[in-house]
Amino acid sequence: MTFGTLTSLFYFLFVVVRVSPWYNPQYFIPIAGMLIGNSMTGITLGVNRLVDGMTTQKALVEAALMLGAHPKVAAKSIINAAFDAAILPTINSMVGMGIVFLPGMMTGQILSGTAPTTAIEYQIAIMLGILGSVALTVIIFVQLGYKTFFNKEAQLVFED
């Protein structure tokens, strides 16, 4: 989780906001909090879907393994479904942003007197940062997580 979140956080602080010093708490704390919170939700959804898929589709995975498929190929549809499930809430938030609901960061900036266009630009930037953070962390967790269901001989090993 650290890699994905820190990558997005530093990109946001150095490239988008260009804050100096980078650890300025005015920017660092709220941005890091949003990225970490959304990444944790994505990881939870992704790992939950991965475990559920590996459990419910055990026969399908074993059949693919018996036909000579590599564990990653045997679990590919489950891995893809886990990623999709993890990223969907973030994409839904991006779709409704500004039309259906006003996100907290944007609302807070507008209420504090910031120009609405500036608030919108920052909100779009943070949503893209959140999407990047969630995507990176979920990819890492799901790609590492599926391997825990297989031993060194590429056999499916987990108890029902």
From TrEMBL:
Its main location: membrane. The keyword Ion transport does not apply. GO terms for cellular component: plasma membrane. Coiled coil: none annotated. The keyword Membrane applies. The chain crosses the membrane at residues 28-48, 81-102, 122-142. Keywords: Membrane, Transmembrane, Transmembrane helix. It is a multi-pass membrane protein. It is found in: Membrane. InterPro entries: UPF0014_fam. Pfam families: UPF0014. Belongs to the UPF0014 family. This is Putative iron export permease protein FetB.
